[in-house]
Queue: 4 jobs
Job 1
Amino acid sequence: MSQYDLGITCDMHVHLRDGKMMELVTPTVRQGGVSVCYVMPNLVPPITTIEQAVEYKKQLEALSPTTTFLMSFYLHKDLTPELVAKAADEKVIRGIKCYPAGVTTNSSAGVDPNDFTPFYPVFEVMQDKGLILNLHGEKPPSDDDDIHVLNAEVKFLPALAKLHKDFPKLKIILEHCTTKEAIETIREINKGKNAHEITVGATITAHHLWLIIDNWAGNPINFCKPVAKLPQDRSALVEAATSGEPWFFFGSDSAPHPIETKARHEGCCAGVYTQLHAIGYVAEVFDKQGKLDNLKSFVSTNPLAFYEITEDQVKSKDTVLLVKNANEVPKVLGNSGEINVVPFKAGQSLNWSVEWK
Amino acid sequence: MSQYDLGITCDMHVHLRDGKMMELVTPTVRQGGVSVCYVMPNLVPPITTIEQAVEYKKQLEALSPTTTFLMSFYLHKDLTPELVAKAADEKVIRGIKCYPAGVTTNSSAGVDPNDFTPFYPVFEVMQDKGLILNLHGEKPPSDDDDIHVLNAEVKFLPALAKLHKDFPKLKIILEHCTTKEAIETIREINKGKNAHEITVGATITAHHLWLIIDNWAGNPINFCKPVAKLPQDRSALVEAATSGEPWFFFGSDSAPHPIETKARHEGCCAGVYTQLHAIGYVAEVFDKQGKLDNLKSFVSTNPLAFYEITEDQVKSKDTVLLVKNANEVPKVLGNSGEINVVPFKAGQSLNWSVEWK
């Protein structure tokens, strides 16, 4: 078959930034084949008030009126249970993102993942109101505790299991998971559960379906956090993404950075920009596995179900048709010369493109 | 004690390049506290003839008359046993460096480390003549064989063991070793041997005593091949270097690159430049371990013995005094604006400096 109806497509982890960068990348959500997206709150300052979230959403909708933007708060000590309850009741946010302090871009205001108990009152409200907790699942690096970029996610998994045990009805997502062990943990938690009982899921990015450590060693464009790991990890991610299992779904973690912050000898920013061809990158991996029939589960059915998104919440009823059609990734995505972003697989050709119906 | 006599110091793995870069870095061998150095042959084109080696040495000596330069050939299919015998007899080279094809800077002319047998006639001659075989001990990356930057050295170790078995009297050095497994292999090979029976050794760099994967993830200045590995690997290297065992000695693999080839979004060059403070970087690690008494073994006694360097072969009888004295690493090492190299730990202060006596 050379066409696949993907329905209403979702990308449950997008970085749309602000200012000129926001203007550049926000329209590429739809261009990349995505209808519904879940927007990360790690601006400077982070999104922690109703006013900020409402204003940010308004700006995004002005840039792409047919895209559905689901908003989030940044988990922070200033977030009160009352504020979270109000934001949920007013349907301003769909969830709250938790960044461990210091692990990735704009995470300096993050929390200490060795002790989530200060946030338990907030988690109680989230559980009651049906908000989603999105976890950047890495322990911060530590010489004393032998934590480094390769094992930071695996070392975090017990904290995920404990949160689930303490809040069994709280919907939790392990974002951008990168390891075989993370995949196994998600399956273990969900073993024997019916679809409506699932409260713990995981997003998988496009680039982690492609990359291993060799691809970012010495290559700033492919460098992100969590870092891409070993071949067996990539294999586990590909197997999980293409499995159709309802707890795995798409979150690109597309993270644009200006080219000059990538080409820096003294340290380059972490993040891979994939938004402009989000569905195309993923489709090619599914195709190679002979699993294109499961792509709709990964990018549409599963995320819509986990996020409990009803059709009336979606701004455009347009659906996506995946078409076998050569698709060139530009060498750079530019904004009138002011901001330039180098996309993942820049200058390469993909086999699949998207059409809106 | 705040002074240590290090004797005639050695760095058995230096990259001095050619042209303007050679002019910039060659004097820094002595400035960094090194008297005798073993010069890598991976120029473009590589050093594979007597004429090239003689001419290269002449250029280096003109730039630093008091430094002893030991020259090497680049292992290559064009190297005949006759040529190698002649180069040994005329004392033009001290050894031959073997690069697996494609693993690091200027290694495209390298060999296939899955099969060294085409080079066995050359190794026979080297063994007879007492030349040293210097191995870049990594298997090339391979998806099919599950070889990546983290395990490439460990996957190479059986090839080292086999070479030693087939040529028990050939002196072999595993260059810039980076893993716990490599350290264990070197010890296993040498178990129960007397000093004069040692034929297999390993060099350890300055930067691998400091770095782990987190330090080069997103930091081009700290990116080199073999890549720095995990905390337990660094611990094993530090323990081995400071142990005083005769089969471990210093080879900095100082590898200068112009700053613009480090600050490149599409891929940066592999190599850490350490020459200007070579002894200082190492001394600080030994000091932290309370092992400064063993530093002379690592940088002088062990390499002089393994390379069988007699005093009459050393151009200057000057010895190095290590002095406790703050020592600033410049932010950049420049050549009249033409070439700029960012050193390891640029802008930081070291605790030890060197004086020539």
Job 2
Amino acid sequence: MGDSSQHVFDAAIALEAGATPGVFSGTTHPAWANMVGPFGGITAATVLQAVMQHPDRLGEPVSYTVNFCAGVADGAFEIEARPTRTNRSTQHWFVQMRQGGEVVTTATAVTAVRRETFSSLEHAPPPMPEPDSLPRGFAPRLEWPRRYDMRFTEGPLPDVWDGREGTTRSRLWVRDAAGRPLDFPGLAALADVFFPRVYVRRARTVPIGTVSMTVYFHADSAQLAATGAGWIQAQVEGQVLRNGFFDATAQLWNRAGDLLVTTNQLVYYKE
Amino acid sequence: MGDSSQHVFDAAIALEAGATPGVFSGTTHPAWANMVGPFGGITAATVLQAVMQHPDRLGEPVSYTVNFCAGVADGAFEIEARPTRTNRSTQHWFVQMRQGGEVVTTATAVTAVRRETFSSLEHAPPPMPEPDSLPRGFAPRLEWPRRYDMRFTEGPLPDVWDGREGTTRSRLWVRDAAGRPLDFPGLAALADVFFPRVYVRRARTVPIGTVSMTVYFHADSAQLAATGAGWIQAQVEGQVLRNGFFDATAQLWNRAGDLLVTTNQLVYYKE
């Protein structure tokens, strides 16, 4: 687990600060290639990384919405992160990613200084077989899924695309395949790890594209440090597919059963 | 049901276009007062209304995230809506609401031209007694809840604030008390109609404030026209409360059982 060279995740989200504060430049990384352009999760992580690296950041991310405005092309990009409002313990952000002067991604984020309060887990992780007892799934023809070790217990990617009726729920164990410990950009990427609900619902591939993803971070950095590179228990469900758009609602828990992330996305589909 | 004068909802979200395209001015309305300042739902509706009234808008809202950066003060405000990216059938928006030159609310929205496709409801409405058989609940000391007729079947606002342990789920029927038919701003407001999960979980009031709300619109305007001012079946649950922030995840169905909206929010709480 782990290695001495830079992890490909860190290489992909690496940003160089420019002359203007909050403006960064970067380049897409081939290890995270999707069918066309990079995996949405790595884009989400990279855009969040601009907030993480901003010199004026207050606190840690609690809420993050990323909008995929257009396909990100392989190559160079620029990200501009700007605080829109800074309060005593919360801060609001607007972020844009551009390529060739065109906006390809926008995001808003809320960072906050957390304080210890009454806490309660209301959505416990479902019982699932141990990850080590399960085969590694999702044999990838694509590049980015090779970056994750996924062990499905329900709703895997169909073996046969025969158009049979399925449900929209998937359950799996997942972790970084090279043992990179989780941090906030790592969680943002993991929130997008689920393949499209319409694929498992219909056992059929149709053109799709996430238009917006919202991530609520319930973990703080202490909880992430305790989670490390361990297995994450993940569940995702679609609530409705209707006239070109479907949703997916998901949870990520660590081995201790802490709910690290709740996340939702809206996805365009054709046909 | 209904009246010939302007509904207080329309009065509250009324915007006047300024000299600069996409810049609007408005004023908070006393009928929607919360404990301090206006109900978050009416702010969400008003910010979305700036997108609805923008002369360059393409299609109807499908995704909407509103960030409550600071308390909105009673009085005048300015809203600036700007398309960040316009594609062939989708359009991305960034919106800011300002008071006295300070940003109080930000939002991103995606509007889209929908096409008829394979559709499937995966999250059906739960069985609930008929609304007319239930008493009108949530006797309001505040102004804004009087704008809605709410009939709870589960998880009402506690009668006694005795600190007993509860769950975070509420189920209710809800409709505009004056019979205003639903439209997209109306749905955005309704997405914020649920009182704070921490109140019902703990039978105790603590200071709270929504920091971000995301609304996915699965309904199009034809479905909204069919829904009219009829009863909406609503369910909300909190998945976790942890160190100052809790989430709420909710669904809104019409009487025909169509899932009009799925929505999530992250709420700050103290203690």
Job 3
Amino acid sequence: MARRAKQNIRVETTYGPLRHPYAPQALFSEDYINQIHSEALRVLETLGLKILNAEARTILSQNGAIERDEMVYIGRDMVEEALRTAPNHFTLKAADPVHDYVMNRDTLLFAAGGGSPNATDRVKGRRAGDRETFENCLKLQQSFDVIHKLSPSCEPQDIAPNLRHYAMTEAQLRLCGKPMFAYARGRAQSMDIFDMVRIANGLTDEEFIADPWVTTVINTNSPRLIDHPMAEGLIDFARAGQLCVITPFCLSGAMAPVTVAGALLLQHTEVLGALTLHQLANPGAPVQYGAFGSNVDMKSGAPAFGTPTQIQLTIGSGQLARHAGLLWRSAAGTASNTHDMQASGETHMALWGTLMGNANSVYHAAGWLEGGLTFGFEKFINDIEALRSIAHLTRPLSETTQEMGFAALEEVAPGGHFFAAKHTMERYETAFYAPINADLRSFGTWEGAGAVPAEDRATRLWQGIVEAYQTPASGLERAATLEPFITKRTAEGGAALSA
Amino acid sequence: MARRAKQNIRVETTYGPLRHPYAPQALFSEDYINQIHSEALRVLETLGLKILNAEARTILSQNGAIERDEMVYIGRDMVEEALRTAPNHFTLKAADPVHDYVMNRDTLLFAAGGGSPNATDRVKGRRAGDRETFENCLKLQQSFDVIHKLSPSCEPQDIAPNLRHYAMTEAQLRLCGKPMFAYARGRAQSMDIFDMVRIANGLTDEEFIADPWVTTVINTNSPRLIDHPMAEGLIDFARAGQLCVITPFCLSGAMAPVTVAGALLLQHTEVLGALTLHQLANPGAPVQYGAFGSNVDMKSGAPAFGTPTQIQLTIGSGQLARHAGLLWRSAAGTASNTHDMQASGETHMALWGTLMGNANSVYHAAGWLEGGLTFGFEKFINDIEALRSIAHLTRPLSETTQEMGFAALEEVAPGGHFFAAKHTMERYETAFYAPINADLRSFGTWEGAGAVPAEDRATRLWQGIVEAYQTPASGLERAATLEPFITKRTAEGGAALSA
């Protein structure tokens, strides 16, 4: 299997950069989308946002917002100015320049599941995330070219919180060469991370600040609350020119209204409010409209994913983000607790929603289980198959007479076959998507070979990749460059989390 | 579990009739679609079709086609006349009128997997289809309102071929009330089936012929061959006013050219040629453009499903069918040999292709495994979840200020929740899709309850439905009405298959 895995590593760079193959769908009329936008401006003005960070409130109030206790009321002129300064294209820079990723209106970017406290696989079972597992997740993310940006997969909980950001940042720079993520967990940690990225990539301050080398996700605390670390993250990443993906996590029926339009209204309000703070902190800083909404089960309150509501929220979010002129980020997902048909089905449903909405960035696109509480290794492989299929779909088809193959029809007699036709022989090697985990053999052959289901084949595949993984020489160099900084900062006690 | 199953049977009639929620996507430019259409007319004229049935050749040659040996060359004027007479709307009639299904441009119809020699479930395992299994499949199809038309699921091979059509037709009329299928396996069997439908539903000849009560699928023998039973089926079903779904099974790289455009050209040629025969046999008889294409794996020749090529062929087929002004039929599918993540993923991929192509009828939408060689019971349940989700997506959303819920945002404090908000309480009961098999519980709760994966939950669900199934009184009446006919025809030796 290691041999097969090595083959898979070699298919890297087959797909990508990806562009959306299909036109975006519409959930609502353009008129109603405009009404939601206007209503969001009214909410910001009249109901306001609660912001727990004093510096953030001051930035907003000094620019015209009304501050009362911890509430901030933001005028529509401020929002409109923020939308004017927010960029609608930028390039995610990577340690290895081949992985730089241009973000514009047509871009389709995939990132693996992130933020899970746990991990699971069919060898070790389910457990709390640790450093080894976190690094194995990075190896998998680096090995498939349909993963365009790194994600925080599972949390390495065996590392102390004041030192964890060193390990998570160092591992990305050592093992991988793709655009990075960082958590916004307080100013001290953010500054450490920015320093590490600069040092490892040999960047001046000006070079670093000129492009987004690191992406963070800002989750507002729906409804209408921005907590201290999130507000600080907006300010710090904006000032450093690094990418903020402002993502209210709107679970309809729980933290968001029960209707699709209501959940979108809340989401839009929070994105626009946070965006205004972000652009005031540094006008023109890279930012994305984040949308990750689904619904809860109204009997139990449990979050559900891959649901019709998630698909509708995704398509509606795309309309609102485009209305606001912003690049946007969506997500796949599943509530399933294990590697089963539910997990695969829900994730595919959600993925297609992101295609229908023309999401520019699709996070949690591979490996999510349990509504994000666990990163699943076999699930990752299953989802990579889906992402590779979608990548294949993005390839344009040529519209020539030769492609139609009248000559092939002429060559093959009625009832014959095209296996050996000239038209086939000229094209067969690259004609079709080559699956990595799907088993296409007949039942008898498959049964005779042990009747191995997709879940177990996925185990062999990720194991082979992890075992064969070679840390790139450039990554070893970056790690060596970083070592003095980490040693020094560790000796100084690391960096505390934000209060 | 029987209790849960009974609850599920009770959700019948929640969804449907369905209309497509999203605009059709385009694979090719309209100009290129027009070129493929023209090229298909050229193939029919110059390369022709091989038709093994003399009556069919005569019908075509008497109307202007050139006949040479078993080849028939069909002029474009004949095709254009057939496209003029073919209807673009009709109603599938059902034994129980509540299940009548109006077919027009926006219609979305789902039918379960059909035509499998085998069946499998996690209780009895994989085996050849038999009468009991066939009837259990019918009970499942009748129990979910997202299944709009009956399908031949698995073949009851324990019944002799000369009597099998009596059992398959009688079981549909006894156990179910939805629009029916029939195999075109020779004139004698078709006439028996038409008699049974007339007798069971108390129809005059005129009433029967006026609407399609029975649907058959005509699979051309790609490339460019129509065999004896298929040609006879086209003629017999057309004359009886029953629906023919003309479906070349174009596996790109094997029975069809290796390119998407080439496979579409062959498919379009065969549909138009068979349609011309069909409309000459009875102008205006109900017909659908059938499209079921995918690709083979070029290393092994094995058919693959849920692939990018299948999605592209589906979207392109929709363009060609609409270009021809015909309602059309597509299909989902999977090559997986068991109830695993591959099976669920491939089927979801293919289903979304049918949505993107705005297929009017989606066959094999639930229960297919092994590229159609097996009907899987747990797979059926898994796929029904997908179809119900899609059905929920088809529900229009209202565009009102109330739906946006400014008042709800006003009511809920920052950081609060919407569980008890007035806006929620007024809507929560019907707001979200209610899953039938997805388990949304937390990992701990799910594990504590036995860690049952989706596959095993599906087993309990279908078992409960089958055990609780009550044959409708109207079905028992229809069966009693049919009994003398079946007894008589059985005594006469039944009906032989077509040569």
Job 4
Amino acid sequence: MNLPTCKLFEGFTNRHCECFFDLIEETTCKQGEWLFREGDSAEQLYCIRKGAVELLTSIDDAIELPITILRSEGNFFGTSSLIAPYTYSLSARAYQDSELSVINREKLMHQIDRDPELGYIIMSNLAKTFLDRLKETRQEIKIHFKSLMKMMQY
Amino acid sequence: MNLPTCKLFEGFTNRHCECFFDLIEETTCKQGEWLFREGDSAEQLYCIRKGAVELLTSIDDAIELPITILRSEGNFFGTSSLIAPYTYSLSARAYQDSELSVINREKLMHQIDRDPELGYIIMSNLAKTFLDRLKETRQEIKIHFKSLMKMMQY
């Protein structure tokens, strides 16, 4: 049996895969089910095997604003479990019936203490993902700025 | 002599500080001087000791859109030097006369190969910084959304 496909695991050697395999548990969730809420203690990291998960932020008690929908296999979420102060900064809800791999934060941190190279690879992949998201945001700012410039010309 | 104050080095032990110290070179730059351009090969990471540096993205050949100004001591930039494909995604220009610490990517990667824990700490700090920036962006989206809701109520 292999590790699930996940962008966080890119660059793993066989050694990393073997010791990581014991950290993973499988779970399923039904469409509409909440996996965690913004502000909860971030104890688990999730990888999507099948299905889709929506990430949301609460505007007030009544309104949850969708930030993104993670659809493809290999996407991950709950990354606040990797970064102090380990508090989820978004809520997560199953957008479809889904199959997920779950990694417990404490077990993962224990493994990283024993094998810092594992931590280096994971945190490099995580930083790359965040940088890609920041670049997307900047791209949107550029598009808005260009539209504004065009409007001002006419 | 101590390591410069830098958010990337938070959590370093004495051992990390000692081996890191040899990687750092000091430089100065004059207000308005370009340190690198968007699209350049990212060979160096920078920490601000004194002064301020502006990060910009080019809209077209004629216009550079400011993204942020890094003012305080301890801020760092040129982070694309830590993440493949090692290409600067923004341009950097001295906003004031500045004193900078410069870290060569190849030397740093060589050191991380020898001491993966060093890499784990740096990449964790980097991921935390990126996550903080993403949270700021989301906060701005929330503010715009709330303004929009108020406008629609009246």
